[in-house]
Prior knowledge:
Elements: H1 2-39, E1 47-54, E2 60-70, E3 75-81, E4 87-95, E5 98-103, E6 109-117, E7 120-124, E8 130-133, H2 155-163
Antiparallel strand pairs: 1-2, 1-8, 2-3, 3-4, 4-5, 5-6, 6-7, 7-8
Amino acid sequence: MKKLIILVVAVMLLGVAGADAQARKKATRKSAKATTAAAFDSSQFNGTFANSYSDGIGGTVTDYLTLNFDPATGVATGEHKNERGETRAVKGTLQGRKLICTYVDDGEDFADISIINANTLKCEGFTGTFKRVAGDHVKPEVDIATPVQEAPVDPAYELIKNRNK
């Protein structure tokens, strides 16, 4: 009988401890969500950003994005400069935590932009991320052709060549 009472008391204590742990876990999740919600700052859309990537033949190309976001209206204007230096005006509206952007000239979709941190934007539709760079208008870097390097000559070849002279 004593064993049964001890067993019942032990089960009750475990149940209370488990419920207490669940309550603490839920409270932690709620505070983490509140911290994440407070961390969103739409003014971080402002600035000039660059996205560099491989051109597929050994070089690197860069796209530039300059945005001017007005938090009062939730509208951003700016320009996208592609790797060839072609510039197109973009316009976007804030929807939730994303800036939905289109090209001004034809209304074609540009990208859905979200903030990763104060210096990084993620644009859906692009590989990689756009990182903040200095300046308002940055000219795309011109890829400089890789200089041709001569292959090293085998010393044995030089010996044979000199012997045949």
